[in-house]
Write a structure and sequence with these properties.
Blueprint (H helix, E strand, L loop, with lengths): L7 E2 L2 E10 L2 E8 L4 E7 L2 H4 L2 H15 L9 E7 L2 E7 L3 E3 H4 L7 H20 L2 E2 L8 E4 L4 E3 L6 E3 L6 E5 L10 H5 L4 H4 L7 H16 L9 H10 L14 H10 L11 H14 L24 H4 L1 H7 L10 E4 L5 E8 L6 E7 L5 E5 L7 E2 L6 E5 L4 E10 L5 E9 L6 E12 L6 E7 L2 E5 L5 E5 L2 E7 L5 E7 L6 E7 L6 E7 L1 E7 L5 E7 L6 E6 L4 E5 L4 E7 L5 E15 L7 E2 L6 E6 L5 E6 L9 E6 L6 E4 L2 E5 L5 E5 L6 E5 L6 E3 L5 E7 L5 E7 L6 E6 L6 E2 L11 E2 L5 E5 L5 E5 L6 E2 L7 E6 L5 E8 L2 E8 L5 E7 L7 E9 L6 E16 L3
Antiparallel strand pairs: 1-2, 2-3, 3-4, 4-6, 5-6, 7-9, 8-11, 9-10, 11-12, 13-57, 14-15, 15-16, 16-17, 18-19, 19-20, 20-21, 21-22, 22-23, 23-24, 25-26, 26-27, 27-28, 29-30, 30-31, 31-32, 33-34, 34-35, 34-57, 36-37, 37-38, 38-39, 40-41, 41-42, 42-43, 44-45, 45-46, 46-47, 48-49, 49-50, 50-51, ...
């Protein structure tokens, strides 16, 4: 009997029936404790009445709940209320893959995106010893923002992940409604059809059948009757993909065929292998010109897979894309397989063990060790931390209490701890980067102090200070100098610099990089190797000599970060997928709208009613010139207004303030009919302009040749910009007060500060500190919204600017926390009913590369 709306099952209140089937009824419900909507599956009486079936179901479902993977439906709770046994899961908005296939085959790119996510979910389950056994389009759900979730582990079975043996535990008896058996039978593996013992490879066969159907619109083995379908699974091969009339890459065809091998021994041996090959193929399609896969790895015994020419020729293609300083072909080996961000990596003292830090699946940073020949990784017996350096003596320099300072970098307390484990000894707070001296007796560190960042070597001796930031510091092999990436402003662009340990002779060896992340000395100390780019987003591996001679070592189509170079020249690096994504909550709505549609889009402004945002795209999606856009927060398509950066809107919504990326001139772009208006600011370079409340003046961050950045104000009718602050104001968003008398920004000490437009002395906002960023004024003009990063989330409070009294407003966190580096900035509407925000997601794969010189 169906449950009526308002019925309570424990703390859950039934809202509406979503659907019903052989395995029970599913309802939308409200969780009164956590104030969230959930889905509740109420089990049928036939399962409840069978004690063994019920016990198995609960035991195995708990195992599934422990997976906590973004591509598997999350199970929150179990309960038994008034004879009703129920399971509580996350509530999904979207439709099943079966619904998506109702109109026929899917586009190849979308197929690849879905397939990668399905494979990742299967890999996570298989690693925990759980197989699905009923994978089909009905059990794959696609959310409105394109995330894929595997549903219904109702037939899930435990098996020994080490031996592959079946545990013999089934979660529930299999039931299907009349007429649905064809759908289930059509995706069974041959060993399932024969009733034999199955392992994780049965899911790989079912996955192959789904992948085939996404590409062709037809199930590969479907026949008129169930018996004919089973016979086809056992004895027939599916129709060639080429006969579908669609342009399907041969390499993708090979992946499908390899999944659908009749003999389990001939299939992919792991879902993670499938995911990797699909990711490589997917990345290949984004490379202009030659269609080359973006990643390859060495094949191990027992994994005989024909990847196709595109993937097999990958190392050669990468080699041909360099100024060939080596006569050998680079050899790439993948070292990590989880979903998340690698935040540090080093070779161990033995030169073979690799130590790295990673935040997998939204969890905090942890330290791991691996060896390329062994496969897999092992957690180290040290606290959650990020890895900064490894000494020759086997001691780690780590950052505990690691936190995001902004969207560009993170900081923590520098500590030292043996590789073997133990309690870390804390040394220095607010450290961004650190490195051991060659003999392991001293440490160099980049520390945030007083709103600036300084370089110390040894600790306590300041060699250099900047109003920008410093990253990837490395002590030279002779211990006499330190190389680092010097970032002067609010981006990761900058220069490769070297300074002597006496604090003298600071030199920029290589500069004008629009992005630079990752640095290490060459084995002989004659060069600094680093990853960077002067245009676009794809970083390359370069070397620069101490005399400034630069050369290209390796070109790839992706973003990469160099972490270390071994004494024999092996390179440890990550392949990183950086994305800046956007979400918004429109006033009156209950759920956020995902507004991500490009590469590196950042919100720059929101209208007071929360209906429209301005944003810029400065990654690949904006082209060489960048792009300024507006978009409604209901998810309507974005409208490109012009080139450049910025996106603050005028009070009447008719203009957007922007700047061109080349000359940094101020440009006003009309949101409707009209022509752009240029306001030349040379020789002052303008960035991130913001309209004043009167709509007639504009404030912006500006820099003049030979001087530090300041905040300027200019009349939109023309005239010379006027500085309203001293030099050296840290990078931060600018927000004028409603009366136009104050500008909210970061002060010289790094705290949220009010700067009078008339040039009077600035006033720090009481009750705030270095970890706070103020982003918006409240409607009454008495308080400001202040953000503080908390891992992949941000806590926003309302702080009274006069008293410092603070009131909680909201904790904002992307629904999928995997790889979230930071919430870049939150733009609340003044009344607090709506908001928009950007967040940076970095998904990394750790690689070892041999053969580079």
């Amino acid at each position: 009997m169906s449950l009526d709306p308002g019925t309570r099952l424990g703390p859950y209140e039934i809202v509406a029936l979503i659907g019903a089937g052989g395995m029970g009824e599913v309802y939308r419900a409200r969780d009164a404790r956590l104030h969230r909507d959930v889905a509740i599956k109420v089990l049928p009486e036939s399962v409840i009445g069978d004690a063994d079936s019920l016990s198995r179901f609960e035991r195995e479902a708990r195992a599934v709940a422990a997976l906590s993977h973004p591509n598997i439906l999350g199970i929150f709770d179990f309960g038994n209320e008034g004879g009703k046994v129920f399971a509580v899961t996350e509530l999904l908005e979207g439709r099943t893959l079966r619904d998506e296939l109702s109109d026929g085959a899917l586009p190849v790119r979308r197929t690849a995106e879905y397939a990668i996510q399905i494979a990742r979910g299967l890999a996570a389950a298989h690693e925990r010893g759980i197989i699905h056994r009923d994978l089909k389009p009905e059990n794959v759900f696609v959310t409105r923002d394109g995330r894929v979730k595997i549903l219904d582990f109702g037939l899930a079975k435990r098996f020994d992940a080490g031996t592959g043996s079946d545990s013999g535990i089934q979660t529930a008896s299999h039931r299907t409604d009349p007429g649905t058996i064809m759908g289930t039978v059509g995706y069974m593996s041959p060993e399932q059809v024969r009733g034999k013992t199955v392992d994780h490879r049965t899911d790989i066969f079912s996955f192959g059948a789904i992948l085939y159907e996404m590409l062709t619109g037809k199930a590969p083995f479907k026949r008129e009757t169930a018996s004919d379908t089973m016979a086809a699974i056992l004895k027939e091969e599916p129709q060639e993909l080429a006969e579908s009339g669609r342009n399907i890459p041969p390499s993708l065809d090979r992946i499908v065929r390899h999944c659908l091998e009749k003999d389990p021994e001939r299939r992919f041996h792991a879902a993670s292998d499938v995911a990797f090959d699909l990711e490589a193929l997917s990345q290949a399609s984004s490379v202009s010109g030659a269609k080359i896969a973006a990643g390859a790895r060495r094949r191990f015994p027992g994994t005989a897979v024909a990847l196709g020419a595109a993937i097999l020729l990958l190392p050669l293609a990468w080699w041909l894309g360099t100024r060939r300083s080596s006569s050998s072909i680079p050899d790439f080996r993948r070292l990590t397989f989880e979903r998340g961000t690698v935040t540090g990596g080093r070779y161990g003292p033995d030169g073979q063990t690799i130590l790295f830090a990673a935040a997998w699946n939204g969890e905090p940073d942890r330290l791991f060790s691996t060896r390329p020949q062994a496969g897999g990784s092992t957690p180290l017996p040290v606290p959650d931390a990020s890895l900064l350096s490894v000494s020759k003596n086997g001691e780690l320099a780590i950052a505990v209490h690691f936190r995001s300072v902004n969207s560009l970098y993170s900081a923590g307390t520098l500590a030292r701890v043996p590789i073997s484990g133990g309690a870390p000894r804390e040394i220095l707070e607010n450290v961004v980067s650190a490195d051991w001296s060659p003999d392991g007796s001293e440490l160099a560190a980049a520390q945030i102090l007083g709103g600036k960042m300084n370089l110390q070597y040894p600790i306590g001796k300041r060699l250099y200070e900047t109003g920008g930031w410093i990253s990837h510091i490395r002590v030279s092999p002779d211990g006499r100098s330190v190389a680092f990436l010097d970032h002067p402003g609010g981006s990761d662009g900058g220069a490769v610099s070297v300074i002597g340990r006496d604090g003298k002779d600071k030199r920029e060896l290589s500069k004008a990089w629009v992005s630079a992340e990752g640095l290490a000395w060459s084995p002989d100390g004659s060069e600094v190797w680093f990853t960077g780019t002067r245009y676009g987003a794809a970083t390359k591996l370069y070397a620069v000599s101490r005399g400034g001679r630069e050369r290209l070592i390796l070109t790839t189509p992706n973003e990469n970060t160099l972490w270390d170079v071994a004494p024999d020249g092996r390179v440890l690096m990550t392949e990183d997928d950086w994305r800046a994504q956007m979400s918004a909550l429109r006033p009156g709505d209950k759920q956020e709208h995902d507004l991500s549609n490009l590469d590196y889009a950042l919100v720059r402004g929101i209208t007071p009613d929360g209906s429209l945002i301005g944003f810029d795209e400065t990654g690949e999606g904006g082209g060489d010139t960048g792009g300024v856009f507006i978009r409604k927060t209901d998810g309507s398509p974005a409208i490109r207004l012009g080139d450049g950066g910025g996106g603050s809107m005028s009070p009447d919504g008719k203009w957007v303030a922007s700047y061109d990326l080349e000359n940094a001139n101020l440009i006003l772009l009309p949101t409707g009919p009209g022509q752009p208006v240029r306001l030349p600011t040379a020789p002052i370079r303008c960035t991130f302009p913001v309209f004043m409340p009167d709509g007639e003046r504009i404030v912006f961050r500006g820099s003049e040749p030979g001087r530090g950045e300041r905040i300027f104000i200019i009349d939109r009718k023309g005239g010379k910009p006027r500085p309203i602050t001293a030099e050296g104001v840290p990078y931060s968003p600018l927000t004028p007060s409603a009366d136009g008398r104050l500008i909210l920004a970061l002060g010289l000490d790094g705290r949220p500060t009010l700067f009078p437009v008339d040039g009077a002395a600035p006033t720090p906002i009481p009750g705030t500190d270095l970890e706070d960023v103020a982003t918006q004024w409240s409607a009454d003009g008495k308080s400001v919204y202040v953000c503080r990063a908390m891992g992949p989330a941000v806590r926003v409070t309302l702080v009274n600017v006069a008293s410092g009294e603070s009131k909680p407003w909201k904790v904002i966190e992307p629904s999928d926390p995997a790889g979230v580096h930071a919430v870049a900035r939150v733009f609340p509407t003044p009344d607090g009913r709506g908001y928009a925000y950007s967040f940076v997601r970095i998904l990394s794969t750790l690689l070892e590369v041999k053969g580079l010189k």
